[in-house]
Hints:
This protein has 4 helices and no strands. It is an all-alpha fold. The longest helix is centred in the C-terminal third of the chain and has 51 residues, at 93-143. One of its GO terms (biological process) is bacterial-type flagellum assembly.
Amino acid sequence: MASLIQELITTLREEEQLYQEMIPIAAKKTRVIIDNDLASLQQITEEEQVTVEKVNALERKREEVIVNIGTVINRKSDTLTMKTIITLLENQPEEQKELSLIHDSLTTTINQLVELNHKNKSLIQQSLEMIEFNMNLIQSTRMSPGSTNYTKGASQLEMPAAQTGMFDAKQ
Length: 171
């Protein structure tokens, strides 16, 4: 069991390190979104994806270790949480403390990352709303009948020629 706990601690440390690496990436993404730099946003997203794949691999490893711990202590792995495992380590104070510290640190790091990602999501949503507003504005000005001139001929409504759609391609 001790080796499984050490493996869990090591896996969680590696995971926490990867999440720590994602925080500056998310902060950089915020700046890029504000600057509307799509090329950099694409590059950052690819960089993020590589880190996320590493995190997913560690998550699978962590789940496997927890299944093994559940087997050793004769409990179902889906009922084992980190807090439960920490509580079960009463007779091993060093491992209990170490696991508790890494759990708290990981929770803090993930919360920071969630906050940054929420901010980025909000910025992207605002950007999309602005784009939609501009698209609607452009369409409404293209569809307005005639011009707004008040000369002699203004009483005769000037009908625009057949309009093509905004994104029509020439054939």
